[in-house]
Structures are given as structure tokens and as C-alpha cells.
Amino acid sequence: MTPRRTAGDRAHSTSRERVLRDVEAHGSASVGDVVSRTGLHENTVRDHLRRLTGDGYLHRETAAPHGRGRPGHRWVVAPSPRASYERLAVSLAAALEGPRGDAREDARAAGATWGEELAARGPRGDGAHGDGALGAVVRVMRDEGFSPEETPAGDVLLRDCPLHAAVRGSRVVCAVHEGMVDAIARGAEPGARASLAPFAVDGKCLLRVSAAS
Fold it and tell me: Which residues constitute the domain of residue 116?
């Protein structure tokens, strides 16, 4: 079965997404809880819970003892990395906006270093996008949680931003991201460039990637 993408840009089978949404809706769940609420077979539920735990979506905890026998297990939603990501961005923005020269250029340079590190990891994703600068940017932005969407004009609309709360207080964060995507584009295709237009389309950011001339 082809994995489907959700609004959160997750790629799971339909039944695995049902298991994850069930745990998310209730905060925590045992195998029996999920089986009774979803109607899936116990072995199927166990396999999905194991895989979701391995992928970092869930944590397994030992349940409180109840009667005789070994205590069972419950699965809880893993904390999102977004909160720590936002705190990091806010701290970076505050540091760069101090009395130390051109904050935007410093932020862009910091983002470029980050982008070079991401580009060095090589191609990621499911191969749905082509090679070259545009494909590399789309893959990385998807993996970083921005839910990119290619437009008919060939640009990339970022439908989500892990740092939206931080960005509202500082455009320095946008400069970090612009440096990041530009470095990714250049790493994938020498001479290519990428630019970021913050909040350009209905409050969402727009990426423009140009191939080497």
C-alpha cells in the first residue's frame, strides 16, 4: 500500500495513521485500548505501535501495576521537536539582533552553514522529486517540517513553518532560512541560487529556486 501524507506531512499506511491518531487523541493507550477503538487485529496494532515508536512518534512506558503479574505497557505521544526548535531560534535571533553589525547578514551566514551541513547528508526523501537544486530544496524543507508545495510557476510554497512563533518577533529567523535554502541549492547544483520571500502568499513564505545560468 502506498503511504499517504497527512496534514503534518507524515507518511504512513492508512491503518498505521489510524493507530497514531488514536493515541494522539487520547494522550496514551495500551494495545487493548487501540484494538477496541480501531477494530484492528491485535498483532497489527502491536506492529504499528512498534514501528511508530521506532520512528519517534510514540514512546513506550511501563503502566502502573494492576493486580498480579507483570505490569503492562502504554504508548504516549512523543514530544514534538518544534518547541525546542523555536526556543533555539528565539535565542539565536536575540543574540544576532544585539549591537554587533548587520544582523540579517550574520543570520544568513549562519543559515548557510546549516544548509551546507544538511546538503552534505545527501539526498533524502522518497524520490518523488527530481534531482537538482529544486528537488534538493523540496526534499530538505519537507524533512525539516515546512510542508513544501511546488506551485505551477515552479516556485515552492512553504505551507508550514516550525518557527512561526519565533518569526513573528524577528525577521532574522527568515534570514537564517534563506541562507539555509540557498546553500542547499548551491550544494545540489553549482551556480544555482535560492531566495525566500517571507509571508508572500496568504501569510505563507515563497521560495524561488533558479538553476545555474
Answer: 82-210
